[in-house]
Amino acid sequence: MNFDKKFDRYDENAHIQKIVAKNLINLVPDKWYDTIFEIGAGTGILTKNIITNLKYKNLLINDKYFESKKYIEDLISVNFIEGDIENLDINKSDLIISSSVFQWIEDKDELFKKISKSSDTLIFSIYIKDNLIEISDHFGVSLKYLDMKELKTLLTPYFKKISGYEEKFTLKFDTPMDSLKHLKNTGVTGIGQTNIKKIKSYSSKKLTYKVGYFICEK
Ligand SMILES: C[S@@+](CC[C@H](N)C(=O)[O-])C[C@H]1O[C@@H](n2cnc3c(N)ncnc32)[C@H](O)[C@@H]1O
User: How far is the centre of ligand 1, averaged over its atoms, from the C-alpha of 31 (Å)?
Assistant: First the structure.
């Protein structure tokens, strides 16, 4: 993964991530929150939705990369917590929320456990099994995307009420190269490590995104 220095291009290209963040915010119960903690804010796509749609007193924003702070600062005077969420303590919160981030988390079990100690409610979106299938089929590279059942199994020890659904999006491009550029700009890397011949023989003009949404309560 390589988001730092790519944030500007991310925001212009994150069509799916923008729809996903909107869908996610619609799942959040309409009530007062003293403290909301957002994991992996990036350029603030979900943050903007939080600010417009939710009622809260404190909003704590995390991202692994310090560059994210500059985007969030433009939106609100913010409490920004830089760092890898897998190595950070998470403040006590009424709601922990995250969009399009958890597919990058190495040890999801450990993170879900830590989150459940800090909050009774976790609401998140994540890319799931068969996400970007065109890429894994051709290049043989992929994150280890889990399916909805596997994610539910991981969440079950820590949350009593778990609900969710999955959604599929297909993006169409003029050329296969355009689809690869789009991926690069949204931070999906790994393809760069392959050889030119493999890139040239890539022939798909579409990308399939598969997203899971989860609402978890203790
Ligand atoms: C695909 S972007 C999503 C950004 C934003 N939430 C959105 O909906 O557009 C993923 C973000 O998660 C951040 N991220 C990835 N792994 C992280 C980690 N372990 N801890 C904190 N942030 C992380 C990246 O830096 C990046 O900003």
Answer: 26
